[in-house]
Amino acid sequence: MQKDPSQKYRAFPPVHLPERQWPNRVLTHAPRWCSVDLRDGNQALAVPMNISQKLELFQTLVKIGFKEIEVGFPSASNTEFAFNRLLIEKGHAPDDVWLQVLVQAREDLIERTIESLVGAKKVIIHMYNSTSPAQRRVVFGKSKDEIKAIAVNGARMIKDRLHRLTAGGTEVMLQYSPESFSMTEVEYAKEISEAVMEVWQPTPEHKMILNLPDTVEVAMPNVYADQIEWMCRNLKNRDLLVVSLHTHNDRCTGVAATELGLLAGADRVEGTLFGNGERTGNLDIVTVALNLYMHGINPNLDFSDIGKIREVYERCTGLTVPPRQPYAGELVFTAFSGSHQDAIKKGLTEWGNKIATPPQSETSSFGNQVTQPEKDQAIGLGNQTTNYWDVPYLTIDPADIGREYREVIRVNSQSGKGGVAYLLESEFGIELPKDMQREFGPIANDAVDKLGREVSGAELKAMFWKEYVERNAPWRIENFTTYSKNGKVNCQGSIYFKEVQAGINGNGNGPLAALVNGICQIPYAPQFEISNYSEHALSSGETAAAISYIQIKTADGKSRWGAGVDTNIELASVKAVLSALNRL
After folding, report:
1. Cis preceding-peptide flag for 48 (omega within 30 of 0)
2. Helix, strand or coil, per DSSP, at residue 466
3. Nearest-5° angle of CA 511, CA 483, CA 572?
4. CA gap 155, 335 in Å, rounded
5. I need a labelling partner for 369 at 20 to 30 A (CA). Which of 89, 115, 142, 332 fits?
6. Which domains does the chain have, with CATH numbers?
């Protein structure tokens, strides 16, 4: 790296926009969406999709709810051309879905593109040419006027051929992109865009799409927002345009640039599922759509089964969604930190209580929109009586996109008692008392730390059983019986300490009190009392097992928990006392 990067690189100049409005705006509705997975995304694959893969992904995009899909670059290859014809001739494109195709401003390419669209219901012809100073100088060696002439001539060639489509009933929408807009002077971008508008003559009934791509991210996202707002303010006949965004991710701010661009006045967004695209990728539409959803805005795209969508995407593209990809990654609804796990567990419990008794005036349907004052009240006041999602560390309910709560808590060496307790309860119905969680948590953590990896719920249960339920030495008891009379209980049996047998004969108000009384009469037994007790069933049915948790405290202040399992709750409690005694 350069010691002084300013000798080689320079900051992109900002746009002069002293009265910018976008920082004070709030998004209130979803934009129009256009998927470019089948073109921009496909172009970026080392092994491009074949026709069957493109068709499967196209059908998935339709199911998600995309109404505009860029299906390819039909003049680029026979495969691209054939895919267009397959969609049209075999009726794979629904009547309400616009098939978008990309073409450069060249006559031979435009001619081939028109041929590929004959017979379609709805099409968007997307013409582009590059406009930045570097492209004008390095690639084309042309002046601004010469580059503008390319765009104008291309627009005319398309317009002159439209009758071949419209005569057959095809509805056509036109789109122009000054490619590399993000690096183009805004004044020149305006000039060339208006020149194309002059040829195509959009109307309020037949608007033209003006796509302003962040082709290469060269500035912070606020600069892109300024560029968009400047264009929206200064373009002639802005009301005849659908201003569209197409961001890339070179600076890892594609999502931010898109959201700020929408605040700046754009109407439409192009992107791909999970951000597949050239270099560092295109905009991830899934992220922007679900960002809107978490703010109470219906994105008009359905990601209810995001796992299935991810599966199709990975199969068709050969790519893998990273485990930390927002919303869709394997680990995004997973917590390893102990404090996170504890907060999530408590938050999910609170949410369960909320939805069990919903307020009469509220609904919880998909995409329900609420007013900003309602949001402010819920967030600012933390009103526990509302049904707004407010679970720590989880921005949305995983269930809304087909994820499960059991995925939320996982345990490794960084985990705490909350995560351990959650897995034992959710997978096996073992409901550890709070104080017992504090005792077992560090024990489990030490064991997991030695393993140096994540552990399963079954492994945690085995650790718990070994530490508590299977603690049968040095004390064990045989032939334990109880007898009740006049509200008093007597217990008898044989107790062994390191194979030394002693008889017990204890009395108390209940079986456990009698057991403690009997054990404490043995000269070499510690003096103790029961300080905490709880029990519950582990399963249902006639042979259901019960688990008992008992904490004992000795005369010198030591305390230990024990656990016992048996189909007889009284014997489970006896085993729990012996477990605690054996753990002293």
Report:
1. no
2. helix
3. 35
4. 54
5. 332
6. 31-317 (3.20.20.70), 338-358+366-467 (no CATH), 475-582 (3.30.160.270)
Convert the pLDDT of each residue in 170-183 to its tens digit. Answer: 999 999 999 999 99
Q: Which residues contact 91 (CB under 8 A, 6 or more apart)?
A: none
94 φ/ψ sector (left φ>0, alpha ψ -120 to 50, else beta): beta
Q: How far is CA 209 from CA 154, 266, 292, in A?
A: 16, 11, 23
Radius of gyration for the chain, computed over Cα atoms and rounded to the nearest angstrom: 34
39 DSSP 8-state letter: I
Q: Please state the length of the chain.
A: 584
Residues 577, 578, 580, 584, Cα dihedral to 10°: 140
- What is the mean pLDDT, run by run of 10 residues, along the chain of 584 residues? 94 93 97 97 94 97 98 93 96 97 96 97 97 95 97 98 97 97 97 98 97 96 98 97 98 97 98 96 98 97 97 97 95 82 88 76 40 47 67 93 72 76 88 92 89 88 95 91 90 92 92 93 93 87 82 93 93 94 93
Phi and psi at residue 234, to the nearest 5°: -105, -15
Burial bucket for residue 195 (CB in 10 Å: 0-12, 13-18, 19+): middle
Q: Residue 307 has which token pair? A: 């796992």
Residue 459 CB-density burial (10 A; 0-12 exposed, 13-18 middle, 19+ buried):
middle
Of 266, 270, 197, 269, nearest to 232 by C-alpha is: 266
Angle at 82 between CA 34 and CA 166, to 5 degrees: 65
Q: Give CA–CA dist 563/464, Å, rounded.
A: 9
The residues, ordered by sequence, that sit 6+ positions from 285 with a Cβ below 8 Å of its Cβ are: 33, 35, 269, 271, 272, 273, 301
What CA–CA distance (Å, rounded) separates 147 from 139? Answer: 11
Instruction: Give the span between the Cα atoms of 203 and 265, in whole angstroms.
Output: 19
pTM of the model: 0.77
Instruction: Tell me how far apart the alpha carbons of residues 106 and 131 are, in angstroms, rounded to a whole number.
Output: 15
| DSSP-assigned states of every residue in 248-282 | B-TTS-HHHHHHHHHHTT--EEEEBGGG--STT-B
In DSSP notation, 508-530 reads: ESSHHHHHHHHHHTSTTSPPEEE
pLDDT tens-place string over residues 21-49: 999 999 999 999 999 999 999 999 999 99
What's the token pair of residue 456? 């399963």
- Give me the residues paired with residue 129 across strands: 178
> Which residue is associated with the tokens 């399992």?
565
Q: Is 164 helix (H, G, I), strand (E, B) or coil?
A: helix
> What Cα–Cα distance (Å) separates residue 115 from each residue in 69, 129, 158, 360?
19, 21, 12, 58
Strands 475-485 and 546-554: unpaired
Instruction: Return the exposure string of 247-281: e unless at least 16 CB atoms fall within 10 Å of the residue's CB, then b.
Output: bbbbbebbbbbbbbbbbbbbbbbbbbbbbbbeeeb
Alpha carbon distances (Å) from 420 to 338, 414, 455: 9, 11, 10
